[in-house]
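Journal club side-thread
Mid-discussion, someone asked how the predicted structure for our own chain would compare to the paper's figures. Pasting it here so we can look after the session.
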Amino acid sequence: MLQYLFQYPVSYELQSVYLYFDTEEQWHSAYDPQKTCKEKEDLIDPTNNQIIHLTSDAPSFEQSVCTKVNVSGEEWYQCTGNRSFYSQRPRWWYLALGNCDSTEGLYLEYSILMTNAKITNRWFYHFSFDEFYALPLSITFMVLELIILILSITFTYMLKARNMLHPTYKLFMHSLIFDLSCTISLWLHYDRYADDGKGFPLLKLIGLMFRQISVVVFVTLLLLLAKGYTITRRVISTSSVFNLLFFTLSFFFCHVTMLIWEILMFDPAKVTYMSESLPAYLLALLRIIAWMWYIRSSVVTVRKYPLKKMFYMSLGFLISFYFWSAPVTLVIANFVLDNWVREEVMLAVESSVVIYGFCTFLVLTNPMPSNKNFPYHVRTNQISQDNYPQHVYEVQYSSTGQTQMSE
């Protein structure tokens, strides 16, 4: 439903509000700057109640009440009313102001409330159809990530007690906390949005930024694991460090650019999603490159340390879905999904993929005795050389407290 209050000086009469819906013959055609005002007006069928004449002489079937009021000694039109929309599918409606006979331009002060359900239905009242389930989805994924965080903290204490809390596990915790911050931010935004239809747009943007950081950290973690860092070696080569640093910075830059692109480059008069931007396609390409890099590095590591074959095979098989999810979902979002479901579907898919990645890592690295894939076999206080021994029992201590390596 559309509820409105329009007011403007009588000297600007006669202004009208035009309601276009999202078809090639309607809004897409009306948005063409080559068309004249009259041509844009003729696109609308007057019998379809798509014109609101802002005058006291407006036809009664428009259900708009316009009166003349005095504002600071000047005569103004003040129009109030509402419109209900019924269609076979969800639509975007575009409101345009026009006066084809004006020589002074246009002027309008307005208050608009557009709702999508009964006022008693807090879950959907203020939400557009493409975000209909945004609030319950954000709550669901926030709760799931809180559960994962509790398990992760439990495993952290277990690893710390065994002196096996390595930097890679700490990176995982950082990635998890960043994404949890994202889901909390989205929940706060959508929860307020359910009340006032505005929410916290800046908080939502910050939350999305947290998610991008989380993804960058997690992909970096996976590449480090593929190199054998903290599993088969204490340090990685200088060239690998520079390559990884360059990739990580490029990955992060594309994520940030994608968000900025959506704000600065996208036309708000068109229905778009950030996956349609150039940085989004670059990110999809980088994810494929990261997957290829991960597989190659894992194969090299397993050749040198065959005892880790089971862990790397399990992780490689499961985590490949994580790497490929971005390019696949981008294609689906841009070329398969309808615009009116894309926002909430992408929120659900992206959040699910993130949680899938976290769960995969958590399951394979959990320190429970039943975990045959547990990757760490050297304690943090036993590190004495760049490459780790094949077995934990190869690390021994002498009576002088120095570390020795047995053959």
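Post-session note: The radius of gyration is 29 Å.
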